[in-house]
Amino acid sequence: MDSYTTDQILTPLRGVDHVAYVTWNPGETRDFYVEAMHMPLVHAITAKGWLVDDYPDFAHFFFDMGNGNHIAFFYFFGLPPEEAPSDLMQRSRHIAFHVDTEDELNDWRSSLKSHGVRVTRPITHELIESIYFHDPNGIQLEITRPLRAFDQRDSRDADLTLQALADVAASPAPSIEELWRRKFALVSRNVERTEVGSIR
Predict the structure, then answer these.
(1) What's the CA gap between 113 and 106, in Å, rounded?
(2) Global model pTM greater than 0.85
């Protein structure tokens, strides 16, 4: 068995090739992504089974999201549709598409509405502004624009947040208030170290 060594040189990953979901409405899905989302249908695979004996026959088709990225769907023959996701885990999963400007975001919102898609007003949170909507399969989609680029401040803040979150998530009663308390303690310690270092 080959062992992994830390000095192994890997070519860096180049982003997302595709994300894949399941559809029971291939016609509506095709119309939504080609017509409303303006994503060309670029590839389709059909196969009897795959990898294991009980894998169902399927069609797998791909839409071009731009920049070499794709969103893909499986249609499984002979399987009944599942109920639409209703639990928090499923509702939290989504895909966000990027635009650069406020005008582009507003243009997309208008275009989606013209295709009968229910879409939220632009919502600002932290460093992005986004609109949200669903495809015919109940998949939550987002189009987002940056309010400014991420920088070192954001990276440091994220590191402190995740340090605190790791501790809080492992505690008996995790809460966002406890996350903020622990993060404040980490920030305070970092400030004290910085001040002591500057005195020397």
Answers:
(1) 11
(2) no
